[in-house]
Design brief:
By secondary structure, this protein is an alpha/beta fold. The chain has five helices and 13 strands. The protein has two domains: 43 residues, no CATH class; 172 residues, Ribosomal Protein S5, domain 2, CATH 3.30.230.10. A four-stranded antiparallel beta sheet has the order 1-2-3-4, with no helix packed on it. It has a four-stranded mixed beta sheet with strand order 5-6-8-7.
Length: 221
Amino acid sequence: MDTVLYFEGQSDSRYRLIRAVKNRFGAVNEIGVFGMTDKGLKGVSNPSALFLSRGVTPTSGSIISVTWEGSRPLLLEVQALVDDTPLANPRRVSVGFDSNRLGMLLAVLNRHGKMHMHQQDVFLNVVGGLKITETGGDLAVVMAVLSSYKDKLVDNKTVIFGECGLGGEIRPVQSGLERIKEAAKHGFTRAIVPAQNAPKTPIEGMEVMKVGHMAQALDLI
């Protein structure tokens, strides 16, 4: 069997994803985005623009990240809500992101960011029904949680990506330059990225802010 295709999508959404999760001779985890129309499925040529349809009023806890799907970058929105809990055990709920990894990132944030959330519920959602299956979304998740916790807005022209290690270090991810260029193509003017993913030559219209540790990233908020 060369390829296994999954047809994904929420019943209340007009968009569907076709994901190739196994391909013996080509790139894995490729996706195709299609819109449901009265004439059948129609391909979406620019899925990044589709998943960036943010609300009219900016809110805290909203971060744009760049994930890597198959052989291309894809921009998406990560939303977090941190609120006081009446429960003895705070809830940790995530949609589109691994719940175990969310718990790990909250522990790193507690240890290395000095942000204690033992009395708060944390809810996380990846907008549009997408799923983050790689580690490049770690830093965006952390920043979204902090933004909601502190009730501070993050500039809507800022994009964030990077992997968070257990020691608080921000690790590089694959195809960092391509991710930054994809963000610049969609009008973003600032990128917070791992130091090792920073481009050697400037990208026109894009301010790249390098971070090597979680403390540096949190200071930027």
